[in-house]
Amino acid sequence: MGDAAGNVQSLRDAGFAWVRQLADPQLVAQLCSALQAHDDASRPASRAGVPYAARNLLGVPAVAAFASGDLVQNALRAMVAAAGMPVRAILFDKLADANWGVGWHQDLMIPVRERVETPDFSAWSVKQGVPHVKPPEEVLRQMVTIRLHLDDAGEDNGPLQVVPCSHHWGEVPTPEVAERVRGCEVTLCTAAAGDALFMRPLLMHASAKATTPARRRVLHIEFAAQPLPGELRWPLYPRLSEPGD
């Protein structure tokens, strides 16, 4: 797991930390096989050459088992002194014929079981059949994301870029993002297959197009430690239960 104390400090202060080789090659291969089978069954026929993020992947048994299993949960306990409930899993799949980039942003939306109007929760939408909403900052500050690399991500393959410590800024209105990022130190998050990046949702991040396109799959899983307020509920998936249940 590497330097546990250093990881705790890095996640707290910089907003991100690495656990190198969290997943061994056999586990990476198992996840890739399960995700490929899911993709073959669900991918739109018009997908070729078009950026596509597969969502709702906690319904894939191998992904649910990984997210709720001891390997990940022990890593979360070491990092934030608590287990976490997986609430959303997405596969980002960058291909030579779908070489996309994403501008600077924060992850401000969460999935919920159903729409329930609640004070301070806004900007409702539906993504691939699941209701999403923008929660208050305190909800996002309690969450952790794990990005497991299923392929190597070198400097020329459009890896994630982050602005260290930017999660301390709080939510930045979209029109102000470019100005806030301008002149800031940027860290390029290169990785080998099996490496896992732990990050806070409010960390400012982006991804450029690859200059030497090669496949770059990242399994992005978001974790919550607390139930939502009022009658709002996190989504439920097989074998998983909500915090506090």
TrEMBL record:
State if Oxidoreductase is listed as a keyword: yes
Pfam entry (one): PhyH
Drop me one GO molecular function for this one: 2-oxoglutarate-dependent dioxygenase activity
Q: What Gene3D superfamilies does the record point to? A: q2cbj1_9rhob like domain
**Keyword Flavoprotein belongs to the record:** no
Keywords from the UniProt entry: Dioxygenase, Oxidoreductase
What cofactor does its activity depend on?
Answer: Fe(2+)
Task: State what protein this is by name.
Answer: Phytanoyl-CoA dioxygenase (PhyH)
Source organism of the structure: Posidoniimonas polymericola
